[in-house]
């Protein structure tokens, strides 16, 4: 492990990063509450360590290691020892905060309550993702929609993107004299950083994934031909060379079933949350403060929204781990 990693793990700031909750901002506000309940949590599972009688459960440690593994931290005895050291310091500092009565301060109480709500909301989303059933009928319908949007022809093309129409016309005039000059002109003139170094090569693509003007122009070209008039889009002016085309191959349902299932879960989750909001009675009593305005205690207040995508990914990872 590098010295940089050791320094980060050994710092007091790392304590707030190494909690097992899903939301990082919620973790920071909830650390005092989490340490206060650590003993009760550990009583129902194997104990990994104790700090002045307060237990750190093996389950807590395993959750943290699993979370950090996704960020490249190796699960070794050494790193587990570092995590335990950090958790121990967190528990000690939180206990000192309670001794001083900081957990009773109105701003701390407010942060703990917001943290509690955030954790519960994300737990609800994770549970929904884990338990929501996707029917075979719905999956087949999603697959048919996928086929309709991704069928047809895909193209292999190069392009040169410039700011001015006059520049595009100059490039077209040069290509008319020598079509082999296209790659060199793309490297020298194109503003597209993604394809410039490759001579404007875009690889194979579905024209539906391009801006409409570009996709329409490509679809009208014959193999080996280029646009003899600049193609204008929001990005500038394009000169396009079509190298090849082929029918798109749609993978069978079984190959993409997992991805479609997750996509349907996301759609269902969004609908459920939208319905929940539509039925709720939300009354705004005061105009929201500007985004840059600090909270009353001088510390910017950060609200963490529910993130269905991250919750879904986390739930999927948990499900995979359970299968193992």
Report on the structure:
- The chain is of the alpha+beta class.
- The protein has 3 domains: 1-102, no CATH class; 105-146 and 254-278 and 299-324, no CATH class; 152-247, Chitinase A, domain 3.
- Helices cover 54% and strands 12% of the residues.
- It has 12 helices and 6 strands.
- The strands form 2 sheets. A 4-stranded antiparallel β-sheet has the order 4-3-6-5, with helices on both faces. Strands 1-2 form a two-stranded antiparallel ribbon.
- Strand 5 (231-233) and strand 6 form a beta hairpin.
- The radius of gyration is 28 Å and the shape is elongated.
- The chain starts with a helix and ends with a helix.
- The model is unreliable at 1-44 and 293-324 (pLDDT under 50).
The number of helical elements comes to 12
Quick one: how many beta strands?
Answer: 6
Range of strand content: 5-15%
Indicate how many domains the architecture comprises.
3
The neighbouring-strand order within the major sheet is 4-3-6-5
Topology:
Layout: H1 3-10, H2 24-36, H3 38-42, E1 47-51, E2 54-57, H4 58-69, H5 77-99, H6 106-131, H7 136-150, E3 153-162, H8 165-177, H9 182-189, E4 201-205, H10 212-220, E5 231-233, E6 236-247, H11 253-279, H12 308-323
Antiparallel strand pairs: 1-2, 3-4, 3-6, 5-6
Q: What keyword list fits this structure?
A:
324 residues, 6 strands, disordered C terminus, 4-stranded antiparallel sheet, 12 helices
Concise structural overview:
The chain is 54% helix and 12% strand. The protein is of the alpha+beta class. The strands form two sheets. It has a four-stranded antiparallel β-sheet, with helices on both faces. Strands 1-2 form a two-stranded antiparallel sheet.
């Amino acid at each position: 492990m590098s010295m940089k990693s050791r320094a980060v793990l050994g710092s007091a700031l790392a304590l707030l990063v190494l909690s097992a909750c899903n939301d990082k901002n919620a973790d920071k506000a909830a650390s005092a509450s989490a340490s206060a309940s650590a003993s009760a949590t550990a009583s129902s599972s194997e104990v990994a360590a104790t700090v002045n009688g307060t237990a750190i459960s093996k389950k807590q440690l395993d959750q943290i290691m699993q979370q950090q593994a996704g960020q490249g931290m190796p699960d070794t005895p050494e790193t587990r020892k570092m995590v335990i050291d950090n958790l121990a310091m967190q528990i000690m500092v939180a206990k000192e905060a309670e001794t001083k009565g900081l957990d009773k301060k109105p701003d701390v109480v407010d942060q703990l309550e917001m943290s509690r709500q955030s954790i519960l909301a994300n737990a609800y989303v994770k549970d929904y993702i884990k338990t929501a059933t996707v029917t075979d009928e719905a999956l087949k319908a999603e697959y048919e929609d996928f086929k309709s949007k991704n069928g047809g022809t895909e193209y292999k093309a190069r392009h040169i993107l410039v700011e001015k129409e006059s520049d595009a016309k100059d490039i077209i005039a040069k290509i008319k004299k020598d079509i082999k000059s296209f790659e060199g002109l793309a490297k020298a003139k194109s503003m597209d950083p993604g394809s410039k170094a490759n001579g404007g090569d875009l690889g194979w693509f579905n024209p539906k994934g391009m801006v409409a003007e570009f996709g329409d122009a490509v679809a009208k070209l014959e193999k080996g031909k280029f646009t003899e008039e600049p193609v204008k889009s929001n990005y500038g002016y394009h000169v396009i060379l079509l190298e090849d085309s082929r029918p798109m191959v749609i993978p069978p349902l079984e190959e993409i079933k997992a991805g479609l299932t997750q996509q349907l879960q996301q759609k269902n989750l969004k609908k459920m949350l939208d319905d929940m909001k539509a039925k709720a009675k939300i009354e705004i009593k005061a105009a929201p403060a500007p985004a840059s305005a600090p909270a009353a205690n001088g510390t910017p207040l950060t609200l963490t929204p529910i993130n269905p995508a991250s919750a879904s990914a986390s739930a999927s990872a948990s499900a995979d781990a359970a299968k193992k």
